[in-house]
Each structure stands twice: as structure tokens, then as C-alpha cells.
Amino acid sequence: xxxxxxxxxxxxxxxxxxxxxxxxxxxxxxxxxxxxxxxxxxxxxxxxxxxxxxxxxxxxxxxxxxxxxxxxxxxxxxxxxxxxxxxxxxxxxxxxxxxxxxxxxxxxxxxxxxxxxxxxxxxxxxxxxxxxxxxxxxxxxxxxxxxxxxxxxxxxxxxxxxxxxxxxxxxxxxxxxxxxxxxxxxxxxxxxxxxxxxxxxxxxxxxxxxxxxxxxxxxxxxxxxxxxxxxxxxxxxxxxxxxxxxxxxxxxxxxxxxxxxxxx
Length: 264
Ligand SMILES: CC/C=C\C/C=C\C/C=C\CCC/C=C/C(=O)SCCNC(=O)CCNC(=O)[C@H](O)C(C)(C)COP(=O)(O)OP(=O)(O)OC[C@H]1O[C@@H](n2cnc3c(N)ncnc32)[C@H](O)[C@@H]1OP(=O)(O)O
Description:
Mean pLDDT: 89
Oligomer: single chain
Protein name: Enoyl-coa hydratase-related
Bound molecules: ligand LKXGUNVN
Number of helices: 10
Number of strands: 10
Radius of gyration: 17 Å
Organism: Holotrichia oblita
């Protein structure tokens, strides 16, 4: 039996941008009472492009799950063939500087939240997952991907530069060498190719299969102390987040991106 929990309203999460708040539910969160597994489903047709509102809801959903006693959380999509098309291109087209700043901050906050959850996370990638979509899956601990879709950080193909925390997320998952080859060429991997290089951990026949495999991943931790598990995760991932959040280079880079975005 699955119980629903409410995602924090956007207007409460970010009062300064009340004008941009939306009452529509872009993220569905359900927790299976029997298994203790939460499923976070992005539902922003047509392609789950990541705009400010979706990011705020996603961030709120993963944060709220931190206060629940869950076994793990699965990130997936309600759409038939798309996990997420990445950042919403409309957010990057001549935005107001305040909106660009809020958008960019919400993207990084969401990445940090998912990257750092105390509970285990799996991305059940049930469709295409370019750029920012790939980033979301990289923030999870494990990836199961349905066959015959594409995934990757294809920014260079779009003539843009993946921020270094996108790159760090890739390098946290596949080798430095493979990351270099993939990022410089803007490669989008097919599911089987992604599996071969370790970008995804398992392949699946369809969404149900992906969800079943995702659930199975959590049983690896049945005999593991959750606090020891989380502290170990922090040990492994903490430095990447610190670098992403605090450095001078990041601040410069962000200003540069906002400048680019407001001039397109
Ligand atoms: C391009 C960026 C420009 C400027 C950036 C400047 C500064 C920013 C600096 C740095 C940022 C770096 C990090 C960037 C990360 C990103 O995520 S950028 C976004 C990258 N995303 C993509 O490249 C995906 C593009 N889309 C696709 O490949 C395909 O649409 C799809 C495989 C996801 C789905 O294919 P189909 O099922 O065939 O569907 P359609 O192509 O017909 O699309 C349906 C509908 O959706 C709209 N759409 C698609 N992607 C996006 C998107 N990312 N944002 C907003 N809208 C999107 C598409 O236009 C169609 O709309 P309609 O025509 O039906 O109105």
C-alpha cells in the first residue's frame, strides 16, 4: 500500500520568487508502506525539462524524504520515453538575472541534495537522459536504464561547457579517461554502451523491470548500519560537493554562465 506525501510548495521554499511559483504537481512522491521504498516521479510533460519549479519540487521531495524512515528512494519519470531532457532551454533564453540566479542555484541545490542523501538512491532511467537528465541520474548511487535510450553529457555538442560539478559527477561514476572522451565529444551513449563503460549499473527491459532492479539494489544494505553507510558515503562524496559549492572558481563560473544566459 503506497502512501502519498506532499511536496513542499514552491512559494514556501523560495519566497523571493513567488511570481514563478506553480501550484501544479511536477513531482509525485509515494512511499510503499511494506517495503519502505520511496519513488520520486518527475511529471513535467512533454520531456521533464528541468525548469526552476521542477527543480524546487525535486529538491523539496528528496529533502523531505530525509526526515522519513525510508529504505531508499528511486528517481524516475512518468513519461513513456523520456527520463529528463535536461535543463529547460527556455530558462536559459534571455532570462532576467534574478531568475537566472535562482534557476542556477536551484539546480545546484538539487544536485547537492540528491548527491548527499542519507538514504540510498537509484535512478530508474526509463527514457532518454541527456545533459542535465544525466546529471540527475549521476547524483544517485546506482543507475538502472531501460534498453534503447540515450544518456550522456552532450553539452559540447550544443556548444556549451558542462560545469565542473557535472564533470566531477561523471568522474565519480566512470573513469577519468572515459569521461574525457565522452565530454569532449559530447557523446550520448545508448543503454548497452552506457552499461559497458559503467555509466549505468544495470540494463532493464522496461520500466517495471527497472523499478524491480532498483528495489533489489536497496537489499544490499539490509545488514549495514545506516549511519556507518551514510558517513562512508559522505567520506566518498563530500569533497566533490565542497568543491562545487564553495570555491572561488565556482562563483566566477556561475557569473559567467548567468552572463551567457542573459545575452543569448
Ligand atoms: C542549449 C543551451 C543554450 C544555452 C545555454 C547557455 C548557458 C548555460 C550554460 C551552461 C549550462 C550547461 C549545462 C547544460 C545542461 C543541459 O541540460 S542543456 C539541455 C540539453 N538538452 C538536450 O540537449 C535535449 C534536447 N532534446 C532532445 O534531445 C529531445 O527533445 C528528446 C530526446 C529529449 C525528446 O525527443 P522527442 O521525444 O522526439 O521529442 P521532441 O524533440 O519533439 O521534443 C518535444 C518537445 O519538448 C521540447 N524540448 C525538448 N528538449 C527540451 C529542453 N531541454 N528544454 C525545453 N524544451 C525541450 C521540444 O522543443 C518539443 O517542444 P514542441 O516543439 O513540441 O513545442
